[in-house]
Amino acid sequence: MRRRLLRAFLAVIVVGVTVLGVPLGIIASHLAREQAVRSLDREADAIGFAISEPSEQGKPVPASAVSTAARDDRYVVVRDAAGRTTRVGSRPGGRTIEAQIDTATGVHITVLASAREADGRTVEAWLIVAGLAVAGMAVAVALAVREANRLGRPLDDLAAASRRLGAGDFSVPVAPVGIPEVDAVGAALTSSSARIADLVRREREFSSNASHQLRTPLTALRVRLEEAAMGGPDEMGPALEDAFLEVDRLDATISELLTLARSDAVTTTELGAAGDVFDATRARWDPLAAPDGRRIDVDLEAGVAEALIPARPIAEVLNVLIENALQHGRGTVRLRARRTNGHLVVTVSDDGPGIPAGFDQAIFTRHVSVGNGSGVGLALARTLVQSVGGRLELADARRAEFELYLPLGSLSGPSEGLPEIASELPAGHPDET
Known about the structure:
It contains 10 helices and 11 strands. Residues 410-433 have low confidence and may be disordered. The longest helix has 51 residues, at 116-166. It has helices spanning 2-50, 52-56, 63-69, 116-166, 180-230, 233-262, 274-289, 311-328, 377-387, 418-424; strands spanning 75-79, 85-88, 96-102, 108-114, 271-273, 296-300, 308-310, 333-340, 343-349, 391-396, 401-407. β1 and β2 (85-88) form a beta hairpin.
């Protein structure tokens, strides 16, 4: 591109010099010749004045009078009214210029001079024009190189940013350079990199969320199928029905995760009674907790069971919290729910060792775990809660007690309901978005 710009600039310069310089040189040549002719005319006038007295008296024109008025390198021919001719000097060789005048007394004077002087002035004029042309071309080339670099460097930066984007580096902001077209391309590239980064992030999060959330339903499905295989004919029907329920839960979980991957806000806010959600959660986890001598204890305050909540997201959040309690905690897993000022507050705790110091908020960061977990569950749970306008907080690190704050009847997303929730947080609770 730089070479093309330079060639274009040079072509414009050459055309400009040709269009302007050549006529200027021709005009300068004509001016030099006309100046030489006018000089000879003045010399002829001077000769006429010098011979005016003898010519008026009708006497022959003396050569001395002509020599006095003419230059040595001139060839002068004077013919008076009687036809007598007086010649002074020698005829110059090569190209010549000539001046002729007639005086009032009838004398005809011809002056010839060599054209070398006029030609020298013409060459000098052409040299001046050529020098100006060369100087102008040098300045124009310098400006062309500067402009080519000014236009080429941003394009080099765009090419480098595109290569980085293709290599997987999405942090490619392109600074504006003051050229509208290039700035428009840079802004489009920056916007595209941000969108691609968001899409890749969502895809990765979906993969980790799906692998985390589907592990437990698949385990439960395997347990149900093993029970069906080992039981008698009478027990096979109920076991298969439980397996079908697990398949439905798998399908619901995948749908919820896909919705979350497409948007930060969950759009499928199907409402369900809080009591049904808690009962289904306990029924799901009791068989998995029983082999270790543990159980799920649910305690709902009066009026909570009839409260309408987003069934699927909250069920997924409860699954994450219970799975964490079963994996990292001890004893009974307790679910408590109460209503306060239009909000549903759900508490999940166990009798385990709690959360180590310094991890109070880090546990909500993706891929951060205090044990052998994947570090995905709590980050996903907080995202799900925020997607329906709620909050998930660690209320007591010593008992690994989590509290879920959910505005009842406000399912428009994370931008609504949060200020009211924040105003209801007990003193000392973390206030993190």
